[in-house]
Amino acid sequence: MPPEEILLQYWRELAPADRAKVLQFTQALALKSSPEFTPKTQLGQTLWKLRQRAIANGMKLLNEVELEQEIADRRGGYGV
Fold this sequence. Notes:
With 80 residues, the protein is mainly alpha-helical. It has 2 domains: 34 residues; 44 residues, no CATH class. It is built from 4 helices and no strands.
């Protein structure tokens, strides 16, 4: 059985809270394996450090759809 199918089988057996932990772990691995971004300005460096600290503390980053929903919610339910 291919590794992807084995992972999916285990995934289906996990409780929702454990699935969230697995997602956080895989996101952390993906960040470590991607080339390190180096901000060029002082503001960029400060913001990057804040972002990295938030991720390390377990903050979930929003995907594009979630971000659009967050913006719409803050605008009183109106989209872009």
